[in-house]
Design a protein that fits this description.
Radius of gyration of chain A: 23 Å
Largest sheet of chain A: none
Strand order of the largest sheet of chain B: 6-7-8-3-9-10
Oligomer: heterodimer
Radius of gyration of chain B: 20 Å
Number of helices of chain B: 8
Order of helices and strands of chain B: EEEHEEEHHHEHEHEEHH
Structural class of chain A: mainly alpha
Helix content of chain B: 25-40%
Shape of chain A: flat
Chain lengths: ~270, ~270
């Protein structure tokens, strides 16, 4: 088969990785330099566009004081807890609804209505029900990821190729074996797409969840910096969130790549 | 010999839908197949040969008439009728070995000596060196060998083959035909072989049923009385081909004749 890698000239892997690594960071670096110069030369107002060097100073202050670590651990804990709850519930419901028609009929309308409500709209009830602290934030994150997860698990099962169903039944597979060995792996690509979307959403919802009712966390510090007009810290924390989102996406992508190593890919 | 498959007055009509009128895929078909017989069903596309196979396998239901396997009506899909699909239908998330192991477990044929049987069958089909590979890494011919190994492993007394070599290149196809002949003479399974290749049918089968489309009917029941292994350059081989082509593609046979006539008159 003619594939991508046979078209691109082969280079030693290390050199290729190094080259793409340098290329990857070239644009952000040039952008930061231009930005710094624009502020230094007075084209941009410091009050509205804090320059990279002052961002770095703000970030360094919070790193050396340990504040960033405390905030990161608090937020990460909420993200992990919320994700776990939402992903597990979403996957269980999605799979059950796809496999059993009565379950689909019973919950279908409710799911469609509930998933159309933006998670932010639940802020009020999250506090009324869960008080202050981490729990309302975890609730919001779970609520936000449960539906994308449910839909992708459902779609994954519904789109299993008929030929695998026929082959497995023809070989005599019973219901449990059929579900575990055929339906689940066949639905896995879609489930993992749902997981990737969910992880991205979880970081967004973390900030929403920390808008109110918590004393620490990346989102909470961000909101407070806004209140005190600490523009350096605000932007530094925003970039930290972006960076964590980027790292966790790489993690999910690698995990997916490993689990789906049986799939034919462009780069094979 | 005992009849293994018996079909009487079988009809299957696919109802009209948006994109087309109703199709009489199978129309009052009668046939029997004896135990250990190699029966080829052939005809142009749309003649209902695959529909017939799907009904025997239990994937589809007839609208009218009966389909008996060992005297009992077909009412389920099962490993007593192992299917080899044109698209191989290997489970892409399982290694070659695990595809065969899954088949044996699904069919309830797993026993303490099963692992050595798996090795033996992979060896027999010439795919032992790929046992830990995923299907995506195999060529079409190798995939079909694994699919046959899967059916051998569950020891189905009846093998239903749905244009199994249709997607292979000419060279691989004739290799596979030879090997299938060897396998059949060793095991004498009852093989129901759907094909649209005249040469393939005459080379392999004890008996050929020729079908024509719209409505799908059996128009010729031809016993092939040639010793095996068959010589495809034997004049009698050609006689059989002509007899079949006369039915499904009369213009092709007469067209050749008239071409020869023209040539004769031009030179004479």
């Amino acid at each position: 088969m003619v594939t991508h890698s046979s078209i691109i000239t082969k280079m030693p892997t290390i050199r290729r990785n190094l080259r793409s690594g340098v290329l990857r960071w070239t644009f952000p670096f040039i952008f930061a330099v231009l930005w710094q110069l624009a502020v230094d030369w007075g084209y941009l107002d410091r009050q509205f566009f804090p320059a990279p060097i002052s961002l770095a100073k703000a970030a360094w202050g919070d790193i050396s004081s340990g504040k960033l670590a405390v905030d990161s651990i608090a937020s990460l804990g909420r993200v992990i807890a919320g994700l776990t709850i939402g992903v597990v519930i979403g996957a269980i419901f999605g799979l059950s609804m796809a496999v059993w028609r009565p379950v689909d009929t019973m919950f279908g309308v409710s799911v469609q209505i509930l998933r159309s409500i933006p998670p932010i709209a639940w802020i009020g009830f999250s506090i009324i029900w869960f008080g202050i602290g981490s729990r309302p934030a975890i609730f919001l994150i779970s609520l936000g990821v449960v539906f994308p997860m449910l839909i992708s698990a459902y779609q994954g099962v519904r789109q299993v190729d008929l030929i695998y169903v026929r082959a497995a039944r023809n070989l005599g597979a019973g219901n449990w074996m059929f579900f575990k060995e055929i339906i689940l792996p066949a639905a896995l690509p879609s489930v993992l797409t749902g997981l990737r979307v969910s992880v991205g959403l979880a970081w967004i919802l973390m900030v929403v969840g920390e808008l109110v009712a918590v004393s620490n966390g990346i989102g909470a510090t961000l909101i407070r910096a806004q209140d005190y007009n600490q523009v350096d810290r605000m932007l530094a924390y925003m970039l930290v969130i972006g960076f964590y989102g980027y790292l966790s996406d790489i993690g999910v992508a690698n995990f997916t790549h490993y689990l789906l190593r049986w799939q034919r890919r462009v780069e094979d | 010999m005992r009849n293994v498959i018996e079909i009487r007055q079988l009809s299957r009509t696919f109802p009209a839908h948006k994109r087309g009128p109703a199709v009489h895929a199978v129309d009052h078909v009668n046939m029997v197949q004896a135990e250990g017989e190699f029966l080829a069903i052939m005809g142009p596309s749309g003649c209902g040969k695959s529909t017939l196979l799907n009904i025997i396998a239990g994937f589809d239901k007839a609208d009218d008439g009966v389909c008996l396997i060992n005297g009992a009506p077909v009412n389920s899909v099962g490993p007593d009728r192992g299917v080899v699909f044109q698209e191989y239908a290997l489970f892409p998330w399982m290694t070659v070995e695990n595809n065969v192991i899954f088949a044996m477990k699904a069919a309830g044929k797993w026993s303490p000596d099963a692992p050595s049987r798996v090795s033996h069958i992979l060896e027999r089909m010439g795919v032992a060196q790929f046992r830990h590979a995923f299907p995506k890494d195999l060529s079409g011919g190798m995939r079909q060998r694994v699919a046959i190994a899967r059916i051998l492993a569950i020891d189905s007394p009846i093998m239903l083959m749905d244009e199994p070599f249709g997607a292979l290149d000419a060279l691989t196809r004739s290799e596979m035909q030879e090997e299938l002949m060897e396998l059949w003479s060793e095991t004498h399974k009852t093989i129901f072989f759907v094909t649209h290749g005249v040469d393939e049918a005459v080379y392999l089968a004890d008996r050929i049923l020729v079908m024509t489309p719209r409505p799908g009917r059996v128009v010729l029941d031809l016993k092939i009385d040639l010793p095996r292994p068959r010589d495809i350059t034997d004049p009698r081989f050609n006689e059989y081909k002509r007899e079949i082509l006369n039915v499904i593609h009369p213009t092709l046979v007469s067209g050749r004749k008239s071409a020869r006539h023209r040539k004769a008159s031009a030179t004479g």
